[in-house]
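Quick review question:
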């Protein structure tokens, strides 16, 4: 029982990490590479604040692929624990210390939120595009310069000192293992502020809401995801000869997918779909889905279908392909009939051969009897004459 529970926990953890990773990347291929450790999808910016008589920390989780702030934590107050936190320390230890401060009530939520909102406004997408190449080189030098004025204006402070470091990490693992969960909430992006207020704190900040930042492809994909509780990444079964081209696919048409079981996510999906038996063997049978549509751009084609138990099946192709469909039942029965017909023909041929042989034998016997009668008659005639 404990083994089953452990396995269930592992599968749940994998599923949670997959879901969190998708929020930091654009494609399922990128998500797979992140989970496999081939690429890293984010940075954690750690900023220590000394503001007049207050101390604190700001942690900013940034997607290096989508180039936006995913989560931001600001914890500022009078707790003595702040003084022993160092920016170069491990982010897990820093998060643990901040969680302890939150439990003891040693921080000011109102000031912390004001600082968090100011930092949000400072890290625009344009500014991140400038900073990310520097962070790639482990250079955090411009962060303090960027944040000093916004924080002073948000708190009406006088004296400020900032220290900053940047860690390269997996955004999903940080969010999943965050010790602050349930104790300190991330500061939301201030979308309700007026344009003038934003411009007063950080000039040049875009006032366009998050949804405006979605590309055309992302909006197409989002339309398919809204109606389904669970999405499974699949591979399209391709059939270059008998498959159906993209332009000929019709909504509701059955098409075939397979589960990419070479990844942890794939093994989880195979188990969800009931493709793994009690002995751990994985069925190679394709999964049938009812075609919903394709979200496409010049380099990506996202195929969506409704699978078993209302799961959303999602596969990605780099160019149009011919998609395999289930074979009609008539083809199998027709093949069986053909085999039966050939067997019947073969049987008939054998019968004809046997009949021919039987006729030849009867003719030979008749000829032998006739010759015997003739010879017997000649013998009687000779005896009479003599």
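Suggested answer, residue by residue:
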């Amino acid at each position: 029982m404990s083994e089953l529970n452990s396995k269930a926990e592992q599968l749940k953890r994998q599923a949670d990490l997959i879901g969190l990773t998708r929020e930091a990347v654009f494609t399922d291929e990128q998500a797979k590479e992140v989970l496999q450790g081939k690429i890293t999808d984010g940075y954690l910016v750690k900023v220590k604040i000394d503001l007049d008589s207050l101390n604190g920390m700001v942690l900013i989780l940034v997607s290096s692929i989508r180039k936006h702030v995913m989560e931001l934590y600001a914890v500022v107050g009078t707790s003595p624990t702040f003084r022993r936190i160092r920016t170069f320390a491990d982010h897990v230890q820093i998060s643990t210390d901040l969680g302890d401060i939150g439990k003891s009530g040693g921080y000011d939520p109102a000031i912390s939120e004001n600082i968090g909102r100011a930092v949000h406004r400072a890290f625009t997408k344009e500014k991140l595009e400038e900073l990310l190449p520097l962070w790639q080189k482990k250079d955090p030098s411009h962060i303090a310069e960027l944040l000093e004025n916004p924080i002073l204006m948000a708190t009406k402070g006088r004296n400020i000192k900032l220290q900053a470091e940047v860690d390269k990490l997996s955004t999903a693992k940080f969010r999943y293992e965050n010790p602050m969960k349930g104790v300190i909430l991330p500061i939301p992006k201030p979308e309700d502020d007026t344009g003038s207020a934003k411009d007063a704190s950080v000039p040049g900040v875009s006032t366009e809401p998050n949804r405006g930042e979605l590309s055309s492809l992302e909006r197409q994909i989002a339309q398919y995801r809204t109606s389904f509780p669970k999405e499974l990444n699949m591979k399209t079964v391709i059939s270059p000869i008998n498959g159906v081209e993209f332009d000929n696919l019709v909504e509701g048409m059955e098409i075939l997918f397979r589960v990419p079981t070479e990844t942890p996510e794939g093994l989880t999906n195979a188990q969800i779909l009931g493709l793994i038996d009690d002995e751990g063997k994985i069925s190679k049978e394709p999964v049938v889905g009812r075609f919903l549509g394709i979200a496409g751009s010049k380099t990506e084609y996202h195929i969506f279908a409704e699978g078993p138990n209302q799961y959303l099946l999602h596969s990605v192709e780099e160019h149009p392909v011919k998609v395999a469909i289930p074979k009609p039942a008539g083809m199998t029965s027709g093949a069986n009939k053909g085999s039966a017909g050939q067997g019947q023909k073969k049987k008939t041929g054998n019968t004809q051969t046997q009949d021919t042989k039987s006729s030849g034998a009867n003719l030979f016997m008749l000829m032998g009897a006739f010759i015997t009668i003739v010879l017997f008659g000649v013998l009687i005639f000779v005896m009479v004459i003599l």
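Why it works: The CA atoms of residues 51 and 160 lie 5 Å apart. Residues 38-177 form one domain.
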